[in-house]
């Protein structure tokens, strides 16, 4: 390449720390310097880290180092999702290229490739994505197609990547002149490439551990100490998300998601006839906004059907209670469950009582009915997700699908524990109010509605304003019903 002497390129090749200092004018943190220095000689680098210390930046620096200083290099990069890859690693690649006239001059971008202007066919970095639902063979082809002397594989967020995605990279490493695999992630799962690099294959990997522990002298200063302290105080040192996000340590059980987005989307397409759910109780779940920027949500559900929720912003107790009371009256709700965590819902509950309703306050941290769960919120979410898996129909609310499919759970001792609401909010960028409100409709089992069948076989509930049969009076009998049939 023109513009930089061969001597300089050779120096940068052997000394990636010098490369990032000279080309990007950046001072790497101590642990970043250690990873950069290890790169030229280490075929396998793993960064096992807390949230936010600067690991994706290191991957981008190494990718630029490899692109700038090897001949005809090929790089394949992947992450847990395609959005994640483009929002993080790809964004970092752009950020650091902007800092260097030399890199801007020699490399251009296509949609999913960064190529050398002079040799676009043979000198590139490519973005690879894979599908969680596809089989191992398909996942195994994610990183395929790198036949060259100089190859580099990058796996960002590798804590949640399945082993199959890594298989081709391992095989390619044995048939090149210089090959590297670099992976970085939060230790979220007790399986997959990051877990293997830190356990069964530890001797093959150069592993760097990065913590944000406020009591550790070597902690990453890029992560705010106040935030780390607050997380520890709020959730405890043994909380699985504190272990992963603050300490960069593996939790006692993987941080699994409750349900996939595809299952949620299938639930959005389900349709039931009114008579399918006529006997099921009508329940309102009410999630009350805790801070100025959250919405309050009123979610109606009857048996297998959750109807469109009503959202309120900046509603005070009486306005909120008024909206709930109107919905309850119009729809003839059988039960109203209101989030009463931390007292935020107290004024709504008081006002609803004044208006003649009988709301039931539910504390998210309260004891569950079933001791397998750590708290009430976990139990309600598990019930809601089970209901979807059993055929529940949900309305078309993208925020609901995002919250249900991105909330994780783990274990505390032998009890199931749901990720705290604030942490889901930090990830989604908004509070999971819709999911909380839907979950509240599962707070307690509500008795089913009585259904009457006339001698002609027609059924209707007592409170239906206009019975479907309008002929002479007939004798009715109460049919059998199972109150939990639809829950
Ligand atoms: N040594 C550094 N000097 C200046 N900026 C840096 C340095 N290291 C990282 N950054 C910047 O800090 C921000 C956070 O870094 P990065 O995204 O790499 O963190 P991460 O560990 O990958 O976070 P996450 O856990 O969210 O994936 C980015 O904007 C990155 O460019
Ligand atoms: Mg990152």
Offer a concise description of the structure:
This protein has 487 residues and is α/β, with parallel strands linked by helices. It is built from 19 helices and 20 strands. The protein folds into 2 domains: 6-223, Rossmann fold; 257-440, Nucleotidyltransferase, domain 5, CATH 3.30.420.
Structure description:
The chain contains 19 helices and 20 strands. By secondary structure, it is an alpha/beta fold. 37% of the residues lie in helices and 18% in strands. The strands form 4 sheets. An 8-stranded mixed β-sheet has the order 3-4-5-2-6-7-1-8, sandwiched between helices. Helix 1 (6-14) crosses helix 2 (16-24) and helix 4 packs across helix 5. The chain folds into 2 domains: 6-223, P-loop containing nucleotide triphosphate hydrolases (Rossmann fold, 3-Layer(aba) Sandwich), CATH 3.40.50.300; 257-440, 2-Layer Sandwich (Nucleotidyltransferase, domain 5). The protein binds adenosine-5'-triphosphate and magnesium ion. Magnesium ion binds next to helix 4.
Q: Structural class given helices, strands, pairing?
A: alpha/beta
Please state the overall shape, judged from the principal axes of the Cα atoms. Answer: elongated
> Radius of gyration in whole Å, from Cα?
28 Å
CATH class of the largest domain: Alpha Beta
- Give the number of helices: 19
Kindly report the CATH topology of the largest domain.
Answer: Rossmann fold
Mean pLDDT: 92
Q: Do you know the CATH architecture of the largest domain?
A: 3-Layer(aba) Sandwich
- Which spans have pLDDT < 50 for at least 5 consecutive residues? 465-479
Q: How many separate structural domains?
A: 2
Straight-line distance between termini: 67 Å
**How much β-strand is present in the residues?**
15-25%
- What's the β-strand tally? 20
Bound molecules: adenosine-5'-triphosphate, magnesium ion
């Amino acid at each position: 390449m023109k513009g930089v002497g061969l001597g300089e390129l050779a120096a940068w090749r052997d000394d990636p720390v010098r490369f990032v200092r000279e080309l990007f004018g950046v001072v790497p943190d101590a642990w970043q310097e250690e990873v950069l220095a290890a790169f030229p000689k280490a075929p396998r680098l793993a960064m096992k880290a807390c949230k936010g210390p600067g690991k994706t930046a290191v991957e981008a620096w190494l990718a630029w180092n490899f692109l700038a200083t090897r001949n005809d290099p090929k790089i394949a990069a992947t992450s847990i999702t395609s959005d994640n890859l483009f929002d993080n690693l790809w964004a970092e690649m752009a950020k650091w290229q902007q800092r260097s006239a030399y890199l801007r001059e020699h490399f251009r971008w296509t949609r999913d490739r960064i190529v050398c202007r002079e040799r676009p066919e043979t000198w590139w970095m490519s973005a690879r994505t894979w599908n969680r639902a596809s089989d191992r063979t398909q996942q195994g082809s994610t990183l395929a197609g790198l036949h060259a002397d100089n190859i580099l594989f990058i796996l960002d967020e590798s804590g949640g990547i399945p082993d199959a995605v890594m298989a081709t990279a391992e095989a390619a490493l044995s048939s090149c002149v210089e090959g590297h695999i670099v992976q970085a992630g939060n230790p979220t799962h007790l399986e997959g490439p990051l877990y293997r690099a830190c356990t069964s294959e530890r001797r093959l990997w150069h592993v760097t551990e990065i913590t944000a522990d406020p009591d550790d002298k070597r902690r990453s200063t890029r992560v705010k100490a106040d935030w780390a302290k607050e997380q520890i105080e709020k959730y405890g040192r043994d909380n699985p998300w504190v272990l992963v996000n603050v300490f960069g340590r593996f939790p006692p059980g993987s941080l699994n998601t409750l349900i996939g987005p595809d299952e949620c989307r299938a639930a959005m397409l389900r349709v039931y006839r009114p008579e399918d759910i006529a006997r099921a109780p009508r329940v309102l779940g009410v999630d009350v906004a805790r801070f100025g920027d959250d919405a309050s949500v009123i979610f109606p559900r009857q048996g297998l059907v959750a109807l469109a929720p009503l959202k309120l912003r900046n509603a005070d107790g009486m306005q909120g209670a008024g909206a709930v009371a109107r919905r309850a009256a119009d729809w003839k709700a059988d039960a109203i469950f209101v989030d009463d965590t931390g007292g935020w819902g107290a004024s709504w509950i008081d006002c609803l009582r004044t208006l003649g309703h009988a709301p039931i306050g539910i504390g998210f941290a309260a004891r569950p009915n079933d001791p397998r769960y750590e708290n009430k919120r976990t139990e309600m979410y598990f019930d809601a997700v089970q209901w979807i898996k059993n055929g529940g129909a949900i309305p078309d609310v993208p925020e609901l699908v995002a919250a249900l499919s991105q909330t994780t759970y783990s274990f505390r001792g032998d009890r199931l524990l749901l990720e705290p609401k604030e942490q889901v909010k930090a990830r989604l960028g908004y509070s999971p109010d819709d999911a909380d409100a839907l979950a509240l409709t599962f707070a307690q089992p509500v008795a089913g509605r009585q259904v009457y069948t006339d001698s002609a076989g027609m059924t209707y509930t007592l409170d239906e304003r206009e019975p479907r049969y309008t002929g002479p009076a007939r004798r009715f009998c109460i049919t059998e019903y199972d109150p939990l049939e639809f829950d």
